[in-house]
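Exercise: predict the fold of this chain.
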Amino acid sequence: MFDLLDTSPTITPNVSPGLARFLYWAAGDGLLRHYFRQIEVTGQDYVPLTGPVIIAPTHRSRWDGLLIPYVMGRPVTGRDLFFMVSHNEMLGLQGLIIRHFGGFPVNTSRPGVASVRTAVDLLRHGQALVLFPEGNIFRNQKLTEIRPGLARIALQAAAVRPKPDVKILPVAIQYAPAIPQWHASVTIRIGQPLSVATYPWQNSKQAATALTQDLTQALVDLESPEKALCSTAPTV
């Protein structure tokens, strides 16, 4: 698998510095702050400022692609974000914006080698990659089964670059109402990063299964923090 990735073509994602600065200003200070009545963020201290990281948010709306850079993009963390998104999200005006924000497409039903190789290369170079683990938008506010592709990309990157450790950052995004309207509110909960180095990547299938299960649990806990708190509370 790794030999195939080493010889396959890649996509070249691009961040346009000038346009990105304008978009950060227009989207953050302009659009988002006016559209949403409240944007609540918790766990922002968990966001890695350096080193390879996969940012793994739940996917509830097209607004997610603007909120993630607003919360943890260059103006906040000093680093650019790259996006691996579905082909549908690369269409129209949204697609134009995502391209200039470092986005590149992937077939969520059958990811191509070029998309996977691009993601691995970004992590090998210590970049921050946004990858929605559910694959598509689900508006029911409940976590949908996570696909194993994210874990496989993380493990492949860790195999070729064991240091610094690849991190996976779980992020839960919730809107009220579920389909965000004018003056809706949004809550973004960021969890503690998972360390890919703690998984036995030599056995890739076993490691991918364990990593996917742990990411699933982390996102479930972030979506229902009250239940997570009760489940971890000591008995008396």
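Check your answer against the key: The two ends are 50 Å apart (CA to CA).
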